[in-house]
Design goal:
Length: about 325
Amino acid sequence: MREMLILAPVFAGVALDCVFGDPQRLPHPIRLMGRLTGGGEKLLRKLCRNHVGEYICGAALCIFVTAVSFLLPFLLLVILDMVNEILTVAVHSVMCWQIIAAKALRTESMKVYRELENGDLDQARRDLSRIVSRDTETLTEAGVIKSTVECVSENTSDGVTAPLIFLLIWGAPLGFFYKAVNTLDSMIGYKNDEYIRFGRFAARLDDIVNYIPARITALMMIFASLICNYDWKNSIKIYRRDRRKHPSPNSAQTESACAGALGIQIAGPNYYFGKFVEKPAIGDDIRPAEREDIKKAIRLMYCTFALMLATGVLIRFAVWRLVNV
């Protein structure tokens, strides 16, 4: 019974995301994490006296935000569990729904696809700018397609399967901890002059938390490419060759598996906040990138998601049976 109190909300959250997507009209914990991070940064910046102080203040902010993000949902679920189990499952399901972001990733990337289909490259660039950090104003159509595929492949782990792994381990509290780490990294984990010290702890924590999920997701994506009838052999080849071709130890894991499966080249040098950044390309330029590659990347994302869910549930039940023998 206790096992189902975690698994049932996870299944419900996945189903709600697949049907409704991101629950925009509900108070969203991720936005609250962002406000907490922004407000905390403003306060702690005033206490930074030197470079060491910047690092310490940035680390303190990370510890505070992640602790609050874990403890608040944990305590709420404990209190609700004392009142009514059905209410607990219902609230827990909504929490899980707010953590999974598969449909949101599909929706935003399909906006880019539709604008390209309509011949509106400028609008496609603007839509893309909402989901990537690179400068999009001068990207060609091929550049927009590749950037969208890259975004989908990277966020298959960050926004879909990694949160699912944490949900399957210990429900929404651990899922919100993971989302807090992601939020901190996206807000302060930059390697520029402003955040190189203040955001260092956030960036390292994100690398550590995503290390195993990124690699599991990449392997699942290779298997998914076989199911989707993509080039799974090339996916293995490019993964083995290019999985370390990124400043982050994790991002190229899924990017290389996806690029190989689709037979296109992604990543490479780009402009970020007006600054040119030299990055290695991932994959081989076997053929030109096409608009349909965006749809293929989304299909690969969903198949990887399904495989991860099925595998995670089987592992959890196997562990439960061993513990309760």
